[in-house]
Design a protein that fits this description.
With 372 residues, the protein is of the alpha/beta class. It has helices at 25-37, 56-62, 68-77, 99-106, 162-185, 212-230, 244-253, 265-276, 316-328, 332-348, 361-371, and strands at 13-21, 46-51, 80-85, 111-117, 127-133, 143-148, 151-156, 198-204, 237-243, 260-263, 288-290, 295-297. Strands 2-1-3-12-11-4-5-10-8-9 form a ten-stranded mixed sheet, with helices on both faces. Strands 6-7 form a two-stranded antiparallel ribbon. Helix 6 (212-230) links the parallel strand 8 (198-204) and strand 9 (237-243). The radius of gyration is 20 Å and the shape is globular. Mean pLDDT is 92; it is low at 1-8.
């Protein structure tokens, strides 16, 4: 479904970094490892695992949320990684910043890719991918506070660049083309008609933010036109656009109308979590942080301290993120095997309490492994 960030097809043993983080991250990351260890021998893959610390708990112990050693280990020894979850303090904590945001910057992971697809009959018909620019927008975290006669003022920089917008537009176009191609090969695997064009929807607020969001919108349109002029394969993509508030409304009303959505960092973050409500739970939605040299699979949920240690955390998002990581590393066959096993698990109803079931984390993992 998605383009490979780097082709490791000749590699028989992959070294995968495991970064559990905080809370239930320490319960679901072992699920991803178990899935990889139980892939059938016919897939021809073996794995080595290296665990490394990061997160708010590590910060409280050491004063560092993301140790340099963790970053260097990933760069020097790993082809990919799985990242669990981190706690996010609601008030400012001096010296603390999100380790996953830092990892994205340090490893050049400029795209966050989140497929959202309905499986169970109770879900709204949904089959879309949100491609979120991962490096800039308000997430550059350049803020300041100062005093004025009428009180304090807080300001934040919203940075949009042509280069980052062009890069994320090109990835979104490639994903749209490959999704269209997969529908030709296996029409039953998608909710979209194999005869319909791929749709790329650029989301923005350029009616208000004419400079920043206007640059994002115009750059995506330029990249779309240039790619279509260079290569006929891109002719299958129809470019559409939505103002972000209208996008939220229409995505919830008619999710079946959307295929691939490309958005700046903040809007992509909000849309991704909102889309999870269409398929029942954040606990089933995967993501991948993707660059040209590395990929990190990351479930979309948080650290969920209220259920930590109870063995009821939903491992499906992590398992799907594991498959997504393999897909971007150039291994679509074992990735497809994992997706099908997860779909069968959900249809059978072997689910954790967030989906209305009574299964434990361990029981869900065992059921998916059985279906591999």
């Amino acid at each position: 479904m998605l383009r490979a960030a780097r082709n490791y097809s000749t590699v028989k043993t992959l070294t995968i970094g495991l970064i559990p983080g905080d809370g239930i991250g320490r319960e679901v990351i072992p699920a991803g490892r178990a899935i990889l260890e139980n892939l059938p021998a016919e897939d021809g893959l073996k794995f080595e695992f290296l665990e490394a610390p990061a997160g708010f708990d590590h910060f409280k112990k050491t004063g560092t949320a993301l140790p340099d050693e963790t970053v260097e280990m990933l760069k020097a020894k790993c082809q990919g990684a799985l990242f669990g979850a981190v706690s996010s303090p609601t008030t400012r904590v001096e010296g603390y910043s999100s380790p996953i945001v830092a990892l994205r910057k340090k490893l050049g992971l400029y795209a966050n890719v989140r497929p959202v697809k309905s499986v169970m009959a109770s879900d709204k018909i949904t089959d879309l991918v949100i491609v979120r620019e991962n490096t800039e927008d308000l997430y550059v975290k350049e803020e300041r506070t100062y005093e004025r006669e009428d009180g304090k003022v807080a300001e934040a920089i919203k940075r949009i660049t042509e280069s980052a917008s062009r890069r994320i537009g090109a990835m979104a176009m490639q994903i749209a083309v490959q999704r269209h191609g997969m529908r030709q090969l296996d029409p039953g695997a998608s909710h979209h008609s194999p005869d319909a064009q791929a749709i790329l929807t650029v989301t923005h607020k350029s009616n208000v933010l004419s400079q920043s969001d206007g640059l994002f919108r115009e750059t995506i349109k330029q990249e779309y036109a240039e790619l279509q002029s260079k290569d006929s394969k891109y002719k299958v993509v129809d470019l559409q656009e939505q103002i972000v508030d209208s996008m939220v409304y229409k995505m919830f009303r008619n999710p079946e109308d959307f295929d691939v959505i490309v958005a700046p960092n903040l809007y992509g973050d909000i849309l991704s979590d909102g889309a999870a409500a269409l398929v029942g739970s954040l606990g089933v939605v995967p993501s991948a942080n993707v660059g040209d040299e590395f990929v990190i699979g990351e479930p979309c949920h948080g650290s969920a301290p209220d259920i930590e240690g109870k063995n009821i955390a939903n491992p499906i998002a992590t398992i799907r993120s594991t498959a997504l990581m393999l897909e971007f590393l150039g291994y679509p066959v074992p990735a497809a095997r994992i997706y099908k096993a997860v779909d069968a698990n959900l249809i059978a109803g072997v689910c954790t309490p967030d989906l209305g079931g009574t299964a434990t984390t361990t029981e869900v993992v065992e059921d998916v492994i059985k279906r591999l």
